[in-house]
Write a structure and sequence with these properties.
Blueprint: H1 3-12, H2 44-60, E1 64-71, E2 77-87, H3 88-94, E3 100-103, H4 117-129, H5 135-147, H6 149-164
Antiparallel strand pairs: 1-2, 1-3
């Protein structure tokens, strides 16, 4: 049946279809109130009011996150990580060109291979160079490199740039591994 045929059938039946009820009650042209409920759902107003209250609380609560996604006028976006966690206001202050920001949950990409000893040594040497002496932070960085491919590539890229620019080359055995292809 073509669209024209369907329209003719609807016109002939005064707009009724097979699914139109024969006992249509009068429907008000006024919009329903926010807390309106039907006989089937008598608790609707309570659910609506509870939802509105939770939204008010969420708006007033300042969200802190480590991961923020920034939006720009050219419709691009950028995902940024902060350590420690920051509020939306602080995150937006660091990205002056951004027109919006939202916190998100980062899902890491698992590495195919484990972090090699030489890669771990290179990252530890770089952390020492930037005066990072906190054992917990060093352990966190190395653990993140074991479990998150993106973090591993970023840390290795930074450490290798530092290593290449040293006036004297400290020998780290076989630092250029298969990860080099990813950089």
């Amino acid at each position: 049946m073509s669209l024209d045929d369907l329209l003719k059938v609807l016109e002939r039946n005064d707009g009724d279809t097979l699914y139109t009820s024969y006992k249509v009650s009068k429907v008000s042209l006024e919009p329903a109130s926010i807390g309106a409920c039907t006989s089937v759902t008598p608790d609707t107003p309570q659910k609506i009011n509870a939802g509105a209250e939770s939204q008010k609380q969420d708006v007033n609560k300042e969200v802190k996150s480590r991961w923020w996604r920034f939006y720009y006028t050219n419709r691009d976006y950028k995902e940024v990580s902060y350590c420690p966690e920051v509020t939306r206001a602080k995150a937006l202050a660091s990205e002056r060109e951004a027109i919006g920001a939202e916190a998100f949950e980062y899902i890491p990409h698992r590495p195919v291979t484990s972090l090699s000893q030489s890669e771990g040594d290179l990252i530890q040497d770089w952390l020492e160079h930037i005066n990072e002496t906190d054992e917990a932070t060093i352990a966190t960085v190395l653990e993140q490199c074991q479990t998150d491919q993106d973090a591993r590539v970023a840390f290795l890229r930074t450490a290798k740039r530092w290593y290449k620019n040293l006036p004297w080359k400290k020998k780290v055995a076989s630092i250029y591994t298969t990860e080099e292809r990813l950089l």
